[in-house]
């Protein structure tokens, strides 16, 4: 029973199964199993690796006829992506004996998928990839039970991901990979700083581009994660705006001109954004690009190139996907069965010139912002502008954050300094980018800045060291800003606490006299009614109705247990903890179904659950026990037609119906 | 059921960006033969049917077994008992209506007995899981007919491929990190004049900061050469000094602080590669000196005629250099300056191509062929890719297997490290020997595993003895191969399916470079090696 990797993910099930029916197995092992869908010889190719000892197996491997049953009946695999790699993965896993497979994909089938995504036919164009792929596999491979999810990975919470033994990714986006990586890291549990191996869900990740690809095995918390090796992903090529606008040289520059500058100005199809899948749109961009190219005597604008630039198409071919998915599936098999030692831990493949593979051990980054739990100090000069900090976050090879939100906390309130994703806020906060972190009088302007990325991945706290700060922290020297990425919410809460107390020392001064920054103009909330009553459990409920006047792009929310205006995107995306709803010293956790959050300190848990539709307030209150005071806060945002009802419940109510 | 051109373009869009319309055309004209529709075989064909080869034919005399359906996606359990070629053809063909699927319900041995010429019609033949004797027979038929042959085998966690092609020429090898062809060390006269048209000192600020870095390097190189006896910077020290001169050229503002001139920064960054001397790559020199290049007949393929013409060009008009490639990388510059510089290179490339065309014409004339038998387009393509031309030559299977011509050096030097992938090659050969002697593979049934270990060991020893190979094969490998019991796990088959299909596409399209000549994949450690046998 001592299978190291095996036991990482699957020991519990095995044990349970063994004690449940210790004798039955013997009887069925020899003959047909799952009668009706298995036939003679069906698993011969697989069984040789499970039932025979060998010199190269994992040290914990025990040959057994039960291993096949485990694959067929118990081992649960999640495949993320039903595209080029996903189709291959489903086939490979199903033919290797895995039957309990889930597949998640948010895409529908496009004609251009058909050259490699072999589970799709022309008649399927427009249908969800996950569903068509699952149907095909379940029909072709008897007994296989692929469950499709036509959804985004972000639509699921940790309870969904926790049910799988192994997760395989066939994604085309680094952002999605990082999200998945962050999710699996957030599932890890540590006891006294020691990783609990049963909380590890191995992640197998594949990627391809043209004739190149890679496959890797990630044991979150143990081996290099996606964020540890961000440098391995090539940065996206973006052309400088001045090149596009005034001195194009390449056909690509002309296409970008039409796409970025001409389209929004001319709105040729009305007020709709450019759709790369709409041939009329592409044709328009192509025509404009040709005109611009002719003006500058640039050659080489073609329809295909236009489409490629607009949609940022990555060339893809069946063969590379086949190779990479095969390697990934092989690793899933190894981990699930211990039949062999898994890949350690990165395979690179390239068949442009001959056939080339390279296998190496990607190393964990000591201060990885996702998996290391180690705060990272990044120094900025005293004259650094917010713009420079932003550029660093987005361009630094090991961070590569996409549209991070930048906020600061002043007097315990959350203020947006810069937010790219909401247009109105972007425009309003843009002037902040030119500001230095210290003002002319050498006062601290932004004492405490936070950067938000995926809530599962990183929160950054930027601190500008002033004299006062230095007095309370010897490690930060004068004139430097500290950037502290924190991976895990618990740690985040703790550090937040100590930083906030420092920030208060400078808070008064820093909020003075910056008309350009948004914090002063941030909407205010006032309590319009306070209610007090006892419910039938004789527990006092307090609620207040609050009126907030928020700026466009903001809605009513909760910050530090008080009503506040928060960025609408936080509410929309349900990244509740970004509002900092909890008090200092409390750890914030988003509820698994994203319907609210918990504030945790010690063994005290305050859970807040929001109504599904923030436009209407129907606070639902559910069971709680104990004698703690409970209070409800109604917060109603005005002028936006939406509000959020927030209420807290008593201790121990970690799950609210 | 051929799709319309427009819908084909959409369907194949992602791969057309890799091999172009002309590459796709070669695929659509290709007829691929697969011998044995095992899991590995159908996975290979799958990855050829999807990108749209013209036609395939499966040759297979086996009937489908339960075991076959267990690891093969293109067989279903209701095909058990039917002919395997037919069953697989149905499910493969179903994937892509542009492809015509055919099957022959006969063993390759029978076909070789009765109609060996059957195999001559194919663009490439892929033989999977062939016994050694069949493989050798088929190999020799195809070798003499100059039909490329790709041998594939999945055995346990080991994948094996052998490419057998006499000569394979590649014009578009699509190198990953090619050096630019800028001729800064020997500027042609039009380029020289163009450089002269710039006067960095008298330019206004905007023009100065938008002068392409190529011009900047060329300007400062002129200066350097005049001060250094016409010797360009060679070593690190000299190049660093040269960079410093360029840095000093950056304009300064009224306070003496250097301006932000990104084009100068680019120039400094590019000094190292830009000063690489222009010369004919040695691999290309070798091709110039090869028999095919020097002995042009009416039978000579176009590639060699064009190559000879390039050689003539190098020795005449080119004064030792290849035709100018005619492309420059993007760089900081305003549109007008960039485009006019680009045109200088482009026009020179056109001139050079025209000169090569003249040589082609003359060569064709000399062997009595019309000048239009080689198109301008092809000549242009070859000239543009002149530095990257590749020729792959493989030995025949007969040479590899003969005791007299076996590549002992390669085998023994690899086996200096006993866990080299070479050991799997030797094990596969030993397993073939086992099959020849026992008409079955070792360890297929559980009860055979133990007894087959010693039998397989005998085969290993007799193989090593026959070829007088003084190498040691660890017993672990013999145990492992008996454990495999000829199993063909789907994942290994799928890996080979992807890689073999791509090699076939390279052979068909004459783009990218095929491996030569033996490839081993070890799924246990996820490593691979290319061996020369």
UniProtKB/TrEMBL annotation, chain A:
UniProt domain E2 binding: residue ranges: 378-454
Protein name per Swiss-Prot or TrEMBL: NEDD8-activating enzyme E1 catalytic subunit
Catalytic activity: ATP + [NEDD8 protein] + [E1 NEDD8-activating enzyme]-L-cysteine = AMP + diphosphate + [E1 NEDD8-activating enzyme]-S-[NEDD8 protein]-yl-L-cysteine
Keyword Methyltransferase (UniProt): no
Pathway annotation: Protein modification; protein neddylation
Active site: 242 (glycyl thioester intermediate)
InterPro entries: Chemokine-like_TAFA (IPR020350), E2-binding (IPR014929), NEDD8-ac_enz1_catalyticsu_C (IPR037078), ThiF/MoeB/HesA (IPR045886), ThiF_NAD_FAD-bd (IPR000594), Ub_act_enz_dom_a_sf (IPR023318), Uba3_N (IPR030468), Ubiquitin-activating_enz (IPR035985)
UniProt record similarity statement: Belongs to the ubiquitin-activating E1 family. UBA3 subfamily.
Alphabetized GO MF terms: ATP binding; NEDD8 activating enzyme activity
GO biological process: protein neddylation
An annotated GO cellular component: nucleus
Species this protein is from: Scophthalmus maximus (Turbot)
Annotated EC: 6.2.1.64
Keywords, ordered alphabetically: ATP-binding, Ligase, Nucleotide-binding, Signal, Ubl conjugation pathway
PROSITE patterns, per the entry: UBIQUITIN_ACTIVAT_2 (PS00865)
Gene3D superfamilies: NAD(P)-binding Rossmann-like Domain, NEDD8-activating enzyme E1, catalytic subunit, Ubiquitin activating enzymes (Uba3). Chain: B, domain 2
Enzyme class: ligase
Function: Catalytic subunit of the dimeric E1 enzyme, which activates NEDD8.
TrEMBL record, chain B:
One of the GO BP terms on file: protein neddylation
Domain annotation THIF-type NAD/FAD binding fold: ranges: 12-527
GO CC annotations, alphabetized: cytoplasm
InterPro entries noted in UniProt: APP-BP1, ThiF/MoeB/HesA, ThiF_NAD_FAD-bd, Ubiquitin-activating_enz
CDD domains (alphabetical): APPBP1_RUB
Keywords recorded for this protein, A-Z: Ubl conjugation pathway
Classification via Pfam families: ThiF (PF00899)
A GO MF label: NEDD8 activating enzyme activity
Pathway field: Protein modification; protein neddylation
Function recorded in the entry: Regulatory subunit of the dimeric UBA3-NAE1 E1 enzyme. E1 activates NEDD8 by first adenylating its C-terminal glycine residue with ATP, thereafter linking this residue to the side chain of the catalytic cysteine, yielding a NEDD8-UBA3 thioester and free AMP. E1 finally transfers NEDD8 to the catalytic cysteine of UBE2M.
Family to which this protein belongs: Belongs to the ubiquitin-activating E1 family. ULA1 subfamily.
PANTHER family: NEDD8-ACTIVATING ENZYME E1 REGULATORY SUBUNIT, UBIQUITIN-ACTIVATING ENZYME E1
Protein name: NEDD8-activating enzyme E1 regulatory subunit
Gene name linked to the record: NAE1
């Amino acid at each position: 029973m001592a299978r190291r990797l095996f036991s990482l993910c699957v020991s519990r099930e095995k044990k349970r199964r063994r004690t449940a029916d210790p004798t039955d197995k013997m009887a069925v092992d020899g003959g047909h199993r799952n009668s009706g869908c298995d036939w003679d010889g069906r698993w011969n190719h697989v069984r040789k690796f499970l039932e025979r000892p060998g010199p190269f197996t994992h040290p914990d491997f025990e040959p057994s006829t039960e291993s096949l049953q485990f694959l067929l009946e118990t081992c649960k695999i999640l495949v993320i992506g039903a595209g080029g790699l996903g189709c291959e993965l489903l086939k490979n896993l199903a033919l290797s004996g895995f039957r309990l497979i889930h597949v998640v994909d948010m895409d529908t089938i496009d004609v251009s998928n058909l050259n490699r995504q072999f589970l799709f036919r022309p008649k399927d164009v427009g249908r969800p990839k996950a569903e068509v792929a699952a149907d095909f596999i379940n029909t072709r491979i008897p007994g296989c039970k692929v469950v499709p999810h036509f959804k985004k990975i972000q639509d699921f919470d940790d309870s969904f991901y926790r049910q799988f033994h192994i997760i395989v990714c066939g994604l085309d986006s680094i952002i999605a990979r990082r999200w998945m990586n962050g999710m699996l890291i957030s599932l890890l549990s540590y006891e006294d700083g020691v990783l609990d191996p049963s909380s590890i869900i191995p992640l197998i990740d594949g990627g391809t581009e043209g004739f190149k690809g890679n496959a890797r095995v990630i044991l979150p918390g143990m081996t290099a994660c996606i964020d540890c090796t961000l440098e391995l992903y090539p940065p996206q090529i973006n052309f400088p705006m001045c090149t596009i606008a005034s001195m194009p040289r390449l056909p690509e520059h002309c296409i970008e001109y039409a796409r970025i500058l001409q389209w929004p100005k001319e709105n040729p199809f009305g007020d709709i954004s450019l759709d790369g899948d709409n041939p009329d749109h592409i044709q328009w961009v192509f025509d404009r690009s040709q005109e611009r190219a002719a003006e500058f005597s640039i050659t080489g604008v073609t329809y295909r190139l236009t489409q490629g630039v607009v949609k940022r198409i990555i060339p893809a071919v069946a063969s590379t996907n086949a190779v990479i998915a095969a390697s990934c599936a092989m690793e899933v098999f190894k981990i699930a069965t211990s039949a062999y030692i898994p890949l350690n831990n990165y395979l690179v493949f390239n068949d442009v010139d001959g056939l080339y593979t390279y296998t190496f051990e990607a190393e964990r980054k000591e201060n990885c912002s996702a998996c290391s739990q180690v705060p990272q100090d990044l120094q900025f000069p005293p004259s650094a502008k917010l713009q420079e900090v932003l550029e660093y976050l987005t361009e630094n090879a090991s961070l590569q954050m996409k549209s991070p939100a930048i906020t600061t906390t002043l007097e315990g309130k959350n203020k947006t300094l810069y937010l790219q994703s909401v247009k109105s806020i972007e425009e309003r906060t843009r002037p902040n980018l030119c500001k230095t972190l210290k003002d002319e009088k050498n006062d601290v302007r932004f004492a405490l800045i936070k950067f938000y990325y995926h809530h599962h991945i990183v929160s950054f706290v930027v601190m500008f060291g002033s004299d006062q700060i230095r007095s309370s922290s010897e490690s930060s020297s004068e004139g430097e800003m500290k950037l502290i990425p924190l991976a895990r919410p618990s740690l985040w809460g703790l550090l937040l606490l100590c930083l906030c107390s420092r920030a208060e020392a400078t808070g008064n001064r820093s909020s003075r006299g910056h008309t350009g920054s948004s914090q002063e103009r941030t909407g205010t909330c006032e309590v319009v009614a306070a209610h007090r009553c006892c419910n039938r459990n004789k527990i006092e409920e307090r609620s207040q109705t609050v009126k907030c006047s928020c700026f466009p792009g903001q809605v009513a929310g909760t910050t530090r247990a008080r009503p506040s205006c928060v960025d609408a995107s936080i509410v929309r995306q349900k990244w509740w903890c970004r509002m900092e709803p909890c008090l200092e010293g409390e750890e914030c956790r988003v509820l698994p179904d994203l319907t609210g959050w918990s504030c945790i300190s010690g063994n005290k848990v305050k859970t807040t659950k929001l109504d599904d539709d923030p436009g209407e307030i129907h606070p639902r209150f559910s069971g709680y026990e104990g004698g703690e005071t409970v209070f409800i806060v109604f917060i109603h945002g005005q002028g936006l037609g939406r509000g959020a009802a927030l209420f807290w419940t008593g201790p121990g109510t970690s799950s609210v119906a | 059921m051929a799709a319309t051109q427009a819908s084909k373009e959409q369907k194949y869009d992602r791969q057309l960006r890799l091999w172009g319309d002309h590459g796709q055309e070669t695929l659509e004209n290709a007829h691929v033969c697969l011998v044995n529709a095992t899991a590995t075989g159908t996975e290979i064909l799958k990855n050829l049917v999807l990108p749209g080869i013209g036609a395939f034919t499966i040759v297979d005399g086996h009937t489908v077994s339960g075991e076959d359906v267990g690891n093969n996606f293109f067989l279903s359990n209701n095909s058990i008992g039917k002919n395997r070629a037919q069953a697989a053809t149905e499910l493969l063909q179903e994937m892509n209506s542009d492809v015509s699927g055919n099957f022959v319900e006969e063993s390759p041995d029978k076909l070789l007995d009765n109609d060996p010429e059957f195999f001559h019609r194919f663009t490439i033949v892929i033989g999977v899981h062939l016994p050694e004797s069949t493989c050798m027979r088929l190999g020799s038929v195809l070798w003499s007919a100059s039909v490329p042959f790709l041998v594939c085998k999945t055995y346990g966690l080991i994948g094996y491929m052998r490419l057998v092609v006499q000569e394979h020429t590649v014009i578009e090898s699509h190198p990953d990190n090619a050096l630019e062809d800028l001729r800064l060390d020997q500027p042609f006269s039009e380029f020289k004049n163009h450089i002269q048209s710039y006067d960095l000192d008298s330019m206004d600020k905007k023009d100065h900061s938008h002068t392409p870095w190529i011009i900047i390097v060329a300007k400062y190189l002129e200066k350097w050469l005049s001060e250094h006896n016409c010797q360009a910077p060679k070593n690190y020290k000299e190049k660093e000094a040269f960079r410093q001169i360029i840095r000093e050229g950056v304009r300064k503002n009224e306070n003496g602080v250097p301006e932000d001139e990104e084009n100068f920064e680019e120039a400094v960054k590019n000094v190292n590669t830009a000063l690489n001397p222009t010369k004919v790559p040695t691999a290309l020199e070798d091709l110039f000196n090869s028999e095919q290049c020097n002995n042009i007949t009416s039978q000579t393929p176009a590639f060699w005629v064009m190559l000879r013409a390039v050689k003539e060009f190098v020795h005449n008009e080119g004064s030792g250099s290849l035709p100018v490639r005619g492309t420059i990388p993007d760089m900081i510059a305003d549109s007008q300056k960039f485009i006019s510089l680009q045109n200088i290179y482009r026009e020179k490339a056109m001139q050079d191509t025209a000169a090569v065309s003249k040589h082609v014409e003359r060569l064709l004339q000399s062997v009595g062929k019309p000048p239009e038998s080689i198109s301008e387009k092809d000549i242009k393509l070859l000239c543009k890719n002149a530095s990257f031309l590749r020729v792959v030559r493989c030995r025949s299977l007969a040479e590899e297997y003969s005791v007299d011509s076996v590549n002992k050096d390669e085998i023994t030097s690899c086996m200096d490290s006993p866990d080299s992938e070479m050991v799997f090659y030797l094990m596969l050969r030993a397993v073939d020997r086992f099959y020849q002697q026992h008409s079955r593979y070792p360890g297929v049934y559980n009860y055979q595993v133990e007894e087959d270990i010693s039998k397989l060991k005998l085969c290993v020893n007799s193989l090593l003895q026959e070829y007088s190979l003084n190498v040691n094969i660890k017993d672990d490998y013999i145990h492992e191969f008996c454990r495999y019991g000829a199993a063909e796990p789907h994942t290994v088959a799928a890996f080979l399916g992807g890689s073999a299909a791509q090699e076939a596409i390279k052979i068909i399209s004459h783009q990218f470079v095929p491996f030569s000549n033996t490839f081993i994949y070890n799924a246990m450690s996820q490593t691979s090696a290319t061996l020369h046998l």
